[in-house]
Design goal:
about 120 residues; mainly beta; four-stranded antiparallel β-sheet; 11 strands
């Protein structure tokens, strides 16, 4: 099982990006999915989370500018980011709580991270 993020890159302030994170492998079920970010010298912070039935929660830093969504058929979670600011520059990670086929309990998996750089 692995999570693969895509969609990061360099964008000007005020621009938008859409991150994707696809879970692959032999997966029986996926529970909550979430996006985090970590800026240089800072702790990793939770941005947004989404349940299987699409209930969402956002950190204050993400409210109003970021939207999390998921496609359960594709085992994919998205983060639409708009009105980006230089302080949004960070490595963005996805996290999924999932039940690999053949296991008895849900486990937490992380993606490898994707760099988002916002220029002023």
């Amino acid at each position: 099982v692995q999570l693969v993020e895509s969609g990061g890159g360099l964008v000007q302030a005020g621009g938008s990006l859409r991150l994707s994170c696809a879970a692959s492998g032999t997966i029986y079920s996926i529970s909550d999915m979430a996006w985090y970010r970590q800026a240089p010298g800072k702790q990793r912070e939770l941005l947004a989370a989404i349940t299987t039935d699409a209930r969402t929660n956002y950190a204050d830093s993400a409210k109003g500018r970021f939207t999390i969504s998921r496609d359960n058929a594709k085992n994919t979670v998205y983060l639409q980011m708009s009105r980006l600011k230089p302080e949004d520059t960070a490595v963005y990670y996805c996290k999924a709580t999932l039940l690999p086929q053949g296991r008895l309990t849900f486990e937490t998996y992380w993606g490898q991270g994707t760099q988002v750089t916002v220029s002023s």
